[in-house]
Amino acid sequence: MFSKSRINEPGPKTASEQPERPKLAEKGITRPAGAGSGPGAGDSPVVAPRAKVSPSIISADLTISGNLRTTGDIQVEGQVEGDIRAHLLTVGESATIRGEVLGDDVIVHGRVVGKVRGLKVRLTSTAQVEGDIIHKTIAIESGAHFEGSVQRQDDPLGAGVKTAAAAPRTAHRPTPKTAAPAKVAGDKA
C-alpha cells in the first residue's frame, strides 16, 4: 500500500543509469526542422506549441479606410470603410462597417452596410445589417435589424469568386455532317 521513499537513496551516476526523460512529443513540444537526435541535438532549442493569439482590435476611436485581411481574428469597435476578411470577425455594438464582410465566423453586434458572407453568421439583438447575407448557417436574434436577402450556400466563402480554373470549359467539337439515311435491304427508294 505504501512505497518506500527514494529521497535518501543516491541518484544515478552514469549515463546508462539516467532516468528516462518524458518524450517531448507527448507534451506537444517539438524540435525545429533539421534538429535530429544525433550528437549536439540536445543543444538545439525546443519550440513550444503556439498559444492562442488574441484578436486584432480596431478601437472605437479608430477609422480605417481600406481593406483588411487576416487569417486570424478581428474585433471591430470603430469605423471601417472597406472590405474585411478574417477567420473570426466580431463587429462591436459601436462599430460601423461599409463594405463586404467575409469570415468563417461572423458575429454582428453593430452596423454593417454591405454584403456579409460566412460559414456561420450571427446577428445579435443590437445588429443592423443593410445588405445581402450569404451563409452556411445563420442565427438572427430577436431585435436584430436586417434589410436585404438571405441565401444559404454550402461554400459561401467561395461564392462570387470566379477563376479561370473554376470556369467550365467547353471543348470545340465540329458539328457532324448529316449523312444520307442508310438503305435497308428490302426498302424501295
Question: What do these coordinates show?
Answer:
- The protein is mainly beta and 189 residues long.
- The chain contains no helices and 14 strands.
- The protein has a domain at 56-152.
- The chain has strands at residues 56-58, 63-65, 68-69, 73-76, 79-81, 84-91, 96-98, 101-108, 111-113, 116-123, 128-130, 133-140, 145-147, 150-152.
- The strands form 2 sheets. Strands 1, 3, 4, 6, 8, 10, 12 and 14 form an 8-stranded parallel sheet that branches.
- The protein is globular and about 35 Å long.
- Residues 161-176 have low confidence and may be disordered.
How do you describe this structure in short?
By secondary structure, the protein is mainly β.
Range of helix content = under 10%
Instruction: Report the C-alpha radius of gyration, rounded.
Output: 31 Å
Largest sheet: 8 strands, parallel
Beta percentage is 25-35%
Number of discrete helical segments: 0
Identify the overall geometry. Answer: globular
Give a quick set of tags describing it.
eight-stranded parallel beta sheet; 14 strands; 189 residues; mainly beta; 33% strand; six-stranded parallel beta sheet
